[in-house]
């Protein structure tokens, strides 16, 4: 459930006065010109949750008024992403469904003397528009008669003119202090095939006209959008008020989501895809919904995140670490634990016969007893993490070192007796003895370190992809700030046998490493790292509140 915010205050007030008969209807209106990103998730959660809170409805409407950039590939992806986030729209609409109606309404405005066909070229339009400090000039075509405008507009529709030759404009006020009110364009000529209407139209409505009128046609009550549309609100109101809708919708702006180290703009993300800087829209480093899905984020964690960031009127930037923190909170509860050795080093337990095998029982999730246990084989030859052994370790190194002891997770304490290096001085094998009296749960003796391990003959090879931020800090061209080292591939990973049975999308906590997801695209045993275990954000915020 969505917390109280300035939008719920507005709705509460409207319900009191009864402007909309206590009806609440919202919509999520993406333009199908790219894939959704995590910023859109904020808008989705907000629109759907508002409707739910008030027992109203939320529709999905594709704002498909610009045929140049739009495509059904995007339509399908957007639907999939919204469903994955856990929301279902009441009705599915397309702004292009209203092309006939929008045309009729435009004719209506012409008849009322509120719209006219203008022949100024793009450069002239710009020149006539004035500036922030100077008023604009009336177009010489502004006083065309209604009948002439009707004829010209019809001719525009019938393909008599070339792209850019004429536009239909609302007749508002060329001296208005808000430049958006200086006779905004309503229709432009574009001889372009549309993904839904094909070649039926060669004139297309502009956003400033199509959006408010589509909202009004559908019966939207509260049209929630991001702050950059604030200066367009008077235009929004002008159209819905001049078209005599009974209870015209109202536009309410909120701050868009910005995330540290992340650029959220479909246009920019498309550049990354088109220039092959990433592996498609669903590259796990992308802030797209399909990217973070493939990265392993859960819909629950994203909804939780959107709830926690709240809804405000002022733009701000949210720390990416907060999103990661939400994922840890979610998966800490439900991800099964597993052991994976990312950089293996062989350990031989010299006092264990070759054919000896201990069955070691391990908890699947210490936070959830009902998750049960699993069994790993402890044998003479094991893998441990390379970084868990040092010949000459620094102080406070609680892992394995010559003469030192560690506990193998869930099993025995082992002691390092010797090791072997190759010609470069690299350790290639470690020789240990185990103490049979120290089985986990059956012995009091404690050692400082516990490490994860895998039996050499009872594990699988896997690949692990580890990611860091796609965007480097700094100024300048975004494409030049791309972090070329943002993907590290570990090719020689060992994972416990149970993981061979996992499916794409299954998530695990790899002990001492973090959260991982089985990749959905690659057929083999490939795991993507979602986040590490250390929650710097939660820690930081705990310190902050403690300091207060
Ligand atoms: P982009 O600039 O990335 O293309 P957009 O705003 O053009 O985004 P639309 O498809 O027009 O994308 O957006 C659909 C809805 O999502 C709009 O209501 C828009 O305000 C909202 N939205 C887009 N980006 C964000 C964001 N970063 N945070 C919150 N809402 C957003
Ligand atoms: Mg847009």
Task: Give me some keywords for this one.
548 residues; alpha/beta; seven-stranded mixed β-sheet; 13 helices; 27% helix
Fold and architecture overview:
- With 548 residues, the protein is of the alpha/beta class.
- The protein is built from 13 helices and 27 strands.
- Strands 12-25-26-27-23-24-13 form a seven-stranded mixed sheet, with helices on one face. The protein has a seven-stranded mixed sheet with strand order 21-18-19-20-14-17-22, with no helix packed on it.
- Strand 19 and strand 20 form a beta hairpin.
- Helix 11 packs across helix 12.
- The chain is elongated and about 100 Å long.
- Bound molecules: adenosine-5'-triphosphate and magnesium ion.
Produce a short descriptive summary.
The protein has 13 helices and 27 strands. By secondary structure, it is an alpha/beta fold. Helix 2 links the parallel strand 1 and strand 2.
Cα end-to-end separation: 28 Å
SS content category: alpha/beta
Biggest pleated-sheet summary: 7 strands, mixed
Q: Residue-averaged pLDDT, rounded?
A: 95
Computed CA radius of gyration, to the nearest angstrom = 31 Å
Strand content: 15-25%
Helix percent reads 25-40%
Q: Which ions and ligands are bound to the chains? A: adenosine-5'-triphosphate, magnesium ion
Name the shape in a single word. elongated
Count of DSSP strands: 27
Q: Are there runs of 5+ residues with pLDDT below 50, and where? A: none
Strand ordering within the main sheet: 12-25-26-27-23-24-13
Number of helices: 13
